[in-house]
Amino acid sequence: MTAFLRSLSAIGLGLIYAFLLLPLVAVVGASLTAGEMMRLPPQGLSLKWFGRFLGSETFREALALSLQVAGTTVLVVVTVATLAALCHRALTRRLGAAFRVAMLLPLLLPELLTAIGLLFFLNHLGLGKTLPGLQIGHVVIAFPFAFLAIVAALEQVDPALEEASASLGASGFETFRRVVLPLVKSGMLTGGLFAFIVSFDMFTISLLLKPIGGNTLPLALFDFLTYDFDPTAAAAATLSVIFAFCGVVLIERLVGLRRAF
Amino acid sequence: MTQVDIAGLTKRYGGTLALDGVALQARDGELVSLLGPSGCGKTTTLRCIAGFLTPDGGEIRVDGQDIVALPPQKRDFGVVFQNYALFPHLTVFQNVAYGLQVRRIAPAEQQKRVAEALALVRLTGLESRLPRALSGGQQQRVALARALVIRPRLLLLDEPLANLDARLRDEVRWLIREVQQQAGITAFYVTHDQAEAMALSDRVAVMKGGRVVQFATPREIYQRPAEAYVARFTGEANMLPARPAQRLAEGLWRVAIGETVLEVPGATTLAEGASALLMLRPEALSLAPTGVPARVLAAAFLGASQQCDVALADGTRLRLQASPHLAVAPGDAVHLAVDAAHAWLMPDIAP
After folding, report:
1. Mean pLDDT score of chain A, rounded to an integer?
2. Of B209, B229, B249, which closes a domain?
3. Which positions in chain B touch A182 (Cβ < 8 Å)?
4. What is the ipTM of this complex?
5. Which of A177, B204, B284, B331 makes a 20 to 30 Å CA pair with A71?
6. Which residues span the domain enclosing B152?
7. Is B105 an interface residue toward A (CB < 8 Å)?
8. Out of 1.20.120.530, 3.10.20.30, 3.40.50.2300, 1.10.3720.10, which CATH number does the structure's domain A57-260 have?
């Protein structure tokens, strides 16, 4: 009976993974085709669509903008989220819960709503359809992910460590630098990775807030797919996956995933 | 070098009074224990001394200077925590050197002082280990070294042995006492274990409901408790209600247990005729050919002694430590001898 249940759950698990991973395999497969159409199985193997992708000035510019925005997002979000997480830790239980909900609001509201709200607000400030405006939008949406990761890491830090540090003569800042920071570094890395992926994949916000004449990679892909259906898009998607995968491997190498989550 | 005077310390959490006018002193080089069950305010008191909590009222004077407004990093007190609180990302050496690094002490001097401190707690050779690679007893010794290396004015220990098993507890307990005496450092020690408090302390403050109910030497706490609460908390004690107390002299009273009249020492605060309790520790009673008649209820042979539960004629139950050489069995009629010098008459205060 238990053996039967075990094999049943194994099959179920296998199906779920297949459902999740097959589209990825299809896209990667399609990107490697030597033919002219996005189709499976690929007709011969070639990297020419990757070449086509990198050769396209539109895509290169979009990739550069996406990387730039995602990079800035990571720096801003990790800094602000660390400060917010420290604040959250210092609050009483009830105030802390309210603060946490407030910090997670961008995650709870529909992204479209946030995007429209930001559009009006940024227009008012004269930042509508500008790069700083787009950057602000990305920071707002990516922030809760980093906040959650850093709060989780900070919860693992025994408050007695900070007391011990203070009793040994360390000022508040020194305690943060020597004790708290090294212990939440893994959470900051994880949060930064989340922020990067969220920003790199962001569509709705980018669509409404993108600067005039600029395009992020997801937007450029969408534009491309509106008129074309050749495997360049699959190559772009494959590169995105590789970026994300590299990020995960990097975190695994630096802190170990089990500690990061 | 360090004398501490605490007076009128109060701390309120919402509606509850955690500290209700705590008063304590520690003379130079003295180890003072704060003893009591959980929730009695002993840890709150220690945290106020360390500066982790700000009291709502009262003063804490160290060598005459009130330190209540001083943040913990300016107090120069070494603190040892129940859960060790070692920095998990730093090695033993870095943990111990932490307070010296923060004080910007020259690296050569750091090396020397860390080596001394580790030798003191007998951990030389483990400098490069991380805390998680150490046993509980070793971790607590690192914590002790880390607190001592800064040459603190005061050492504060918050149940440092609570997380250790019995064998290690003994070892670390004697180490703490030895190191404290060697360094001549004034210390406060929080514990709920009366044996620990008795063995280590110069003086013990027994706490109840946010107040110090008795502050005296271990001997006095045990032999002359201020009230039944203290007597029960510091060891096994038989309590007999003893109403007709007649004063013979200052601190000497005449009381009757059944037919037997005794002259016993007692608290000076007692009033004649007021309701009182006579405390008889198990070792103040013995079996004898004559004396107070009693019947044996149960007897347990413990090797070096035997523990007997007996009932007096009026049904009062007593526990005593009898000589192991007398064979007694439940149901036997026996007589009790009372060592009046080691009895104690105290006021009957609701626990």
Report:
1. 87
2. B229
3. 89
4. 0.84
5. A177
6. 4-229
7. no
8. 1.10.3720.10
**Closest to A182 (Cβ–Cβ): which among B72, B89, B99?**
B89
When pLDDT is averaged across residues B146-156 and rounded to a whole number, the result is: 94
pLDDT surpasses 90 at A98: yes
**Residue ending a domain, choose from B204, B229, B254:** B229
Residues of A in contact with B87 (CB under 8 A): 161, 164-165, 178-179
Per-domain residue ranges for chain A?
A: 57-260
Mean pLDDT of chain B: 89
Q: At what angle do helices A131-155 and A93-108 cross, to 10 degrees?
A: 140
Chain A residues with CB under 8 Å of B89 CB are: 182-183
Q: Is B51 in Cβ contact with A164 (below 8 Å)?
A: no
B40: helix, strand or coil: coil
Query: Which residues of chain B are within 8 Å of residue A163 when distances are taken between CB atoms?
Result: 50, 52, 72, 79, 81, 85
Name the residue among B83, B87, B102 with its Cβ closest to that of A169. Answer: B102
* Interaxial angle between packed helices A57-90 and A232-254, expressed in degrees from 0 to 180 and rounded to the nearest 10: 30
**Partner-chain contact A161 B72, CB within 8 Å:** no
Assessment of whether the complete model's pTM goes beyond 0.90? no
Is B70 an 8 Å CB contact of chain A?
Answer: no
Give the HSE-up count for residue A55: Cα atoms under 13 Å, Cβ half-sphere: 7
A165–B98 C-beta distance less than 8 A = yes
Q: Min CA distance, B97 vs chain A (Å)?
A: 10
10 Å CB burial of residue B304 (0-12, 13-18, 19+) is: exposed
Give the pLDDT of residue B88. Answer: 94
The encoded tokens of residue B292 equal 């107070």
**Do residue B151 and residue B253 come from a single domain?**
no
pLDDT at A257 over 60: no
Q: How many CB atoms lie within 10 A of CB B217?
A: 14
- A158, A163, A169: residue with CB nearest B52: A163
Whether B268 has a pLDDT exceeding 90, the answer reads no
Distance CA B144, CA A240 (A): 53
Find the mean pLDDT for residues A108-131: 88
Residue in A158, A163, A168 nearest the CB of B150 = A168
Q: What is the tens place of the pLDDT at every residue in B51-104? A: 999 999 999 999 999 999 999 999 999 999 999 999 999 999 999 999 999 999
Residues of B in contact with A183 (CB under 8 A): 88-89
Residue A1 has pLDDT above 70, yes or no: no
Question: Which of B89, B147, B92 has the alpha carbon at shortest distance from B124?
Answer: B92
CA distances from residue B60 to A170, A218, B12, B13, B76 in whole angstroms, order as listed: 22, 64, 17, 19, 14
Do B170 and B21 lie in one domain? The reply is yes
Looking at per-residue confidence, does A239 or A165 come out higher? Answer: A165
Residue A261 clears pLDDT 60, i.e. is over it? no
Q: Which residues pair with B259 in a beta bridge?
A: none
**In the prediction, which pLDDT does A248 show?**
77
